[in-house]
Design goal:
Two copies of one chain form a homodimer.
Chain A (H helix, E strand, L loop, with lengths): L2 H9 L7 H10 L1 E5 L4 E3 L7 E7 L1 E7 L5 E8 L3 E2 L2 H4 L8 E4 L3 E7 H10 L2 H26 L2 H11 L1 H4 L4 H8 L3 H12 L2
Helix pairs in contact in A: 2-4, 8-9
Chain A binds a DNA duplex (30 and 30 nucleotides) through helix 9.
Chain lengths: 194, 194
DNA sequence: CGTCTATTTGAATGTACTCAAAAGCGGTGG
DNA sequence: CCACCGCTTTTGAGTACATTCAAATAGACG
């Protein structure tokens, strides 16, 4: 079994494919390597592709008119990333996707993904279930943003994503929590004493 | 064509069914009527079902340990509602689902839904696409909660969901925006003068 | 008209923000 | 090995925005 097949098995976890299907899948993904700091997608881009992170760390963030950054999502190994406000509707990006570490990715465009759905219908079910999980996760994030203080959200984040935290600067985390780096610094200082 | 068939056509929009499929679908949904103020689901309930709103208005909210309410989602005609932090994982509710108006609903439990997916595989695709749209919507809501002031979020909400606003009290909207009723009142006062 | 609920107002408090500056950290080149 | 540079984090002071708690109005409904 070659490297790509190992990756595809991890990507589609529960599913089992015939050799022909595996070959098809391999042909529809493009392997991409990026370096720390590289920008994979910028506001205004026509969003036609989605990235599966084989190995690495990415983030999706929005920059407002004052130049402030708001991180919508981080991704590490085995996660999918894109500007989903645009990808699923076939629109124009409002987000930036940035590599926070040297990363290896699988890229697939909408056309190939649609073709994949048509050829292997169980993949529809696979992504349906993946999206259901994400749906629950998003609702929890909204609930935390509504009900928890900045300090609680920080503690929660560090508890649930310790591996992720390793490849992040504090200002990345601040922009994800919706606070300034100064505030995060003060929160961290408080926590040390408690 | 009977009433149920009209509802099912609206529910599955793009899909076309054979008479047998229609009969199957009808048999898997249960019609429920609730009155304003009724609670459809409470924290601690085993979440096994999901509601499609034929006509009416619902909200899903969480109550924290201090008794404060945080609204995660509103729903009107043609929306789906449940505690999705629990439904998609088969867990226990942390949310309350409440009828804000007399409402007519279709209810389906997980078992029947899974059976439906098995019998009519295109429905997998249908919900996959529905979830993709919801995914983008959630990302936008997270972005607003990160980047916009309470006043901006209020104006935005009223602009995007004018029909929804009609069946809501101000304290519902406040609990959705993550602010107190007092703050919302002051925001509304400010807006009148501008 | 009275009652219950929802909204508004006021005053004091708290939390996070802005702006400005200092300190810390990591790498590079002399 | 040290000096310097750029980037990140921390600290300080003053300010803005939303909160709390308490009380006063306004609306809805029987």
């Amino acid at each position: 079994m070659d490297t790509d097949e190992i990756i595809i098995k991890k990507l589609f976890k529960t599913l089992v494919f015939t050799p022909e299907e595996l070959k098809l899948i391999k042909s529809l993904f493009i392997k991409v390597s990026v370096s720390k700091g590289d920008i994979l997608m910028s506001p205004g881009d026509h969003v036609d592709s989605q990235f599966y992170i084989i190995k690495g760390c990415l983030r999706t963030f929005h920059i407002d008119s004052h130049g402030k950054e708001y991180t919508i999502q981080f991704g590490i190994d085995d996660w999918w990333m894109s500007d989903y406000t645009a990808f699923f509707r076939g629109g124009t990006a409002i987000m930036t996707v940035e590599a926070l570490q040297d990363s290896h990715l699988y890229m697939i465009n909408r056309e190939n993904k649609d073709y994949l759905y048509k050829q292997i219908p169980e993949i529809d079910k696979f992504f349906r279930i993946k999206l259901e999980r994400a749906f629950g996760t998003f609702q929890r994030r909204i609930l935390s943003s509504l009900s928890m203080s900045a300090a609680e959200r920080y503690v929660d984040f560090m508890k649930y994503y310790p591996e992720l935290a390793k490849c992040l600067k504090n200002y990345h985390i601040a922009s994800y929590l919706g606070i300034t780096t100064e505030s995060l610094s003060r929160i961290r200082k408080e926590l040390v004493y408690n």
